[in-house]
Amino acid sequence: MNRCFDKEKKAAIRAVTIASRLCTKVRSVLVEGSTMVKKDRSPVTIADYGSQAVICRVLRDTFPNDPIVAEEDSRELNKAENQSILEEVVRRVQDAFPDASPRQVCCWIDWGREENAERFWTLDPIDGTKGFLRGDQYAIALALIEGGVVQLGVLGCPNLPLGIHSSQEAGGALFVAIKGRGTVQSDLDALRQVPIRVSAIATPAQARVTESFESGHSDHISHEEIARYLNVSAPPLRMDSQAKYAVLARGEASIYLRLPSPETPDYREKIWDHAAGSIVIEEAGGRVTDAFGKTLDFSQGRRLEGNRGIVATNGQLHDAVLEAVAVELGTEMQDRGTRKKDQG
Ligand code: AMP
Ligand code: MG
What we know:
Helix content is 34%, strand content 19%. It has 9 helices and 14 strands. A 7-stranded mixed β-sheet has the order 3-4-5-6-7-8-9, sandwiched between helices. The longest helix is centred in the C-terminal third of the chain and has 26 residues, at 318-343. The protein is globular. It starts with 5 loop residues before the first helix and ends with a helix. The site of adenosine monophosphate (AMP) has 13 residues, from loops. The site of magnesium ion has 3 residues, from strand 4.
C-alpha cells in the first residue's frame, strides 16, 4: 500500500513556500555586488543561502533525525570579506524567522552537509542559479529519499506561470508529487491544487523537446541529431532548472534530453538536481531514466554515480527516444574512434 507521507508533505510544502517567497523578494531587489563566485564559478546568491537556511530549519523542526543532503554550506559565507552578504542573508531569513541570528543561520545552512542514509532529504536551494540571475526560470527543489528511491518531491518555480501560454504575469507554480499518489500543481502558496498529467503524444514527430538553456550543461548538438532522427520539427524549449521537469509533467513538452556535454564527458549528475523533478514527472505518468535507460539510483552519495545523462519522456515515447539516443551515442563513439585513429 502506498504511504501518504502527510506530515512530510506538509513540512516540505511549508519549507519550499517560505523559500520561494524569500527568493522572489531577493530577486526583486537584486543589486550589483550581491553575487559572489564559488570555486566552480557558478554564481551564488543571497537567496541561495537564505533558501537553504529556512528549508533546513523547517525540516529539522519537524524531523530532527532526518539527514539533509543539500548543495550549499556556510564556509564561503563565514569569511570576513563576505560579512555584508551574511548580514543580508540573515535579514531575509528574519522575514520568516524574526529571531534568527548570523550564527544560527550558518548552523541551519550546515544542517545540509549530512550524508545519504536509508532515509534522507535532498535539497537544491536554488536550482538554475544562472536563470535566477538572468530573470529566467529557477526552482527550489526538495525531495525525500528512502532506500535510494524518491518518495516525495516538491518543486517551487517562482517564475513559471501556471500554464506556459497563460497570461498570468507572475505568481509562480508549485509542484508536489508523492510516490503512488500523483502530482499536483498549485500556486506558490499551495492553494487550489490541480492534478497534472504528461502529454498523450504517441508519435515522436509531434513531440516538443526541452533541454537546458546553458549549452555547457548538456550536449545540444547531439540533442539536435536525436530530434532529427525522431522527425521532431518543433524547436527545443530551452529552460533553466528543474522547471523543465515541471513543464514535461504538465504536458507542455514530451521529451527532456540531458546528454553529457562534450566539455564535461565524465560529469556525474547531482542528486538534488533530479530527485524532486523526476518524481514530479513519474507521478504525472511519465518516465525518467539515464541516457542508457537505467533507473536513477539515489543511494550512491551526492552524485548519481551509477548513471550517465538523463532522458525523461511522457512514457509512451520513452523506448523510441532511448533508441534514438543509443544510435546517437554509438555514432559519437565511432566518431571519437576515427578521430583517435586520425591522430595516432
Ligand atoms: P540546468 O538549469 O538544467 O542547465 O541545470 C542546472 C544544474 O546543472 C546546476 O544545478 C548544476 O548542478 C548542474 N551542472 C553544472 N555543470 C554541469 C555540467 N557540466 N553538466 C551537467 N550539469 C551541470
Ligand atoms: Mg542545481
